[in-house]
Design goal:
By secondary structure, the chain is mainly beta. The chain contains no helices and 11 strands.
């Protein structure tokens, strides 16, 4: 299973961006889809997550500004980011866990994977 993140870029403070993350492979089910971010010299922090049933969780700093969503039919995760602030600038990573089919196993196997990251830059 692989994740491909996209949608990052340069935006002015107060602007918006929409990140996408597409999962590929012999996926049986994705349980939790998440967005993390990491600024230079900082740890990687959870920004938002969404379960297979649609339950969401957000970091306090993005509540009311960011919206996480997913399209299960397309195995795709989104993050709509509005009212962006300079402190939102970071590399954003998507993460997924779930189950996938292998060529030899009769039951789907567990996976947990990270995407490659997409850079978000916010000018003040």
């Amino acid at each position: 299973v692989q994740l491909q993140a996209s949608g990052g870029g340069l935006v002015q403070g107060g602007g918006s961006l929409r990140l996408s993350c597409v999962a590929s492979g012999n996926i049986f089910r994705i349980n939790t889809f998440s967005w993390y971010r990491q600024a230079p010299g900082e740890r990687r922090d959870l920004v938002a997550s969404i379960t297979s049933s649609g339950s969401t969780d957000y970091h306090d700093s993005v509540k009311g500004r960011f919206t996480i969503s997913r399209d299960n039919a397309k195995n795709t995760l989104y993050l709509q980011m509005n009212s962006l602030k300079p402190e939102d600038a970071a590399v954003y990573y998507c993460k997924a866990d779930g189950f996938y089919w292998t060529l030899t196993d009769t039951r789907p196997q567990y996976f947990e994977v990270w995407g490659q990251g997409t850079l978000v830059t916010v000018s003040s």
